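Subject: for your reference before the review

Hello V.,

The reviewers asked for a structural picture of the protein, and I figured it would be easier to keep everything in one thread rather than splitting it across files. Below is the amino acid sequence we used in the manuscript, unchanged from the supplementary table.
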Amino acid sequence: MRVLIAEDDSVSRDLLSAVLNKAGHEVIVTTDGLQAWEVMREPGAPRLAILDWLMPGMDGLEVLKRIRARSSEHIPYIIMLTCKTDKADIIAGLGAGASDYLTKPFNVGELLARIEVGQRMVEMKKSLDAKVEELRLALQEQSLLLKSLRRSKELLSKSQEIARIGSWELEPGTEGLIWSDEFYRILGIDPRNIEPAYELFLESVHPEDRDTVHAVHSAHSPREENGYELEYRILNRSSGETRFVHEKSVNELDASGKVIRSIGMIMDITEQKRAREEREKLQSQLYQAQKMESIGTLTGGISHDFNNLLQAMSGNIELLLANKSQDHPEVNRLRTVEKLLSRSAGLIRQLLTFSRKAEPVRQLLDLNQEILSAVKILERTIPKMVRIEVHTRDHIRLVHADSVQIEQILLNLGINAADAMPGGGRLTFETRNIDLDEQFSRTHPRTSPGKYVLLMVSDTGRGMDKTTQNHIFDPFFTTKDRGKGTGLGLATVYGIVKSHGGHITCYSEIGQGTTFKIYLPAAKQEQEDETRKEPPATVSVKGTETILVVDDDQEILEVTAEGLNDWGYQVLGAASGEQALEIYQQNTSRIDLVLMDLNMPGMGGYRSMQRMMDINPQVRVLITTGYSITQAAQPGKPGAAGIICKPFQLKELMLKIREILDSVKNQ
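And here is what came back from the structure prediction:
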């Protein structure tokens, strides 16, 4: 061991040095207190020092005081060497920090004994310091671990709060129950004042779900490792709000299969459930819109072929009637067939309306006036047991709509309501202004935000179940007895509303009646200056001009040509676009008007018309089509002087032809 000797007396210094060297110690010798202090200040200073009390410059007591004042970790073992025998002096030295003292003259054996004690004390101190350092590091590690655990707990608590997931633990036998902070929050309970309890949890379960939840918990096997899973409602004690939760639990088993702990989680799924329901609602609406679009496309194709058949029949009937006197026995039958054909054409128009393929005739309308007009018809039509009430708001916004189609909506809904009240009831019409925002637009596809007029038609009838409501707008779907309904009423209403850029909803419950809400866009400022076109002046339908009739249906071609001939026109016929083009090339200067069907095989009507325009940019073409005007008209397709939809009366065709030809003469 390294030992410092600070002694100004050479005899004592040499004796001490010789004894300690012989005992195997490494000795450092200084002759005054200042030198001793410099040695003890250096790193790695000796752990044992023998200081003479009285030395020049700085005495041993001062060195002792400085060493004790400076050192915190490195505390040497210090033996004071003194001639003083007064106990007060000795006590003063020990009080200043001396570990031991040795009185001059000293015995070598005593010196070695005290050195040995000092050495053991130094070694013990060194061992103790190591233990203290080890304990300090352990405490530091434990502190970091506790800090990490606290941070992890905070993160877990925050994560549970963000995810709205609470957790619980239960130790069977002890009935020790633990709830996380989020579990308390989901229940709406302050965790500071209430201890977890199963009864408290069960009281928070919605009364309608309480028995089911308790039954699942009670039936849960204590030896079932996988636990249970269920969904139910919670009544939040703080807000009173009903929340949906999903609960799941697992058991921890020991080697014998005994449950040592049950762990569970409860997740607030209210927002997810609402979002899922909203998504399903939007998907249902989208499916309905796509279905109506598909059926509309199919209907448009069918209407074309059916209208061609009606046109051929109608033209022949019209020609037969024109050649018979009014008292002819066959006239009445022909008139009956004519009415049936008109009804068939009306049915096709209904199909085109619900499929949004028919072009409405728009004008500014006051829905209040339209309702009053429809009510007058309904009062003469539906049973007297049904009481009609009208609740309309003043200063209702105008709508830009087709008057006939709006009347059709009101009559269809009114008649359906009356059918739902065979024993009588109340039919109510209401209107009011309403503004639809972005939120409504997001949850109701194809509905733009803005100013609308709300039309409500409600009844106190038998109502409908959810299954029926899902199909009420399907074409040909009806709940009426066979032969009492076409199934096109509500499909037509749906088509009219959509063609006007509106939205329709239905709410109904069995035994509680039905309410239809129709949102129609309010007329824009620029539409308020619009007026209907003036009806054409009466003109003569006869003529002498040459007309090229183009139609791939031979019956229509023949009956149209015969009708035109009867009215004085010269007629050239073509059964295809290619044939029409060939005839037009040969007779360009002679032909005054081309009567062109659109839908033909091969070149078709549009391409044939374009080729004719290449030959003569001034060519006049009157388009005939079995489709509606909406389907037939294509923006950016020049050349057509007009469009007339099948089935049409021959006289209607003659008026249209005359209008076009006379406009050319007047230019």
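For the response letter, the relevant points are probably these. Confidence is low (pLDDT under 50) at residues 531-538, 630-638. Residues 108-163 form the longest helix (56 residues).

Happy to draft the paragraph if you're swamped.

O.
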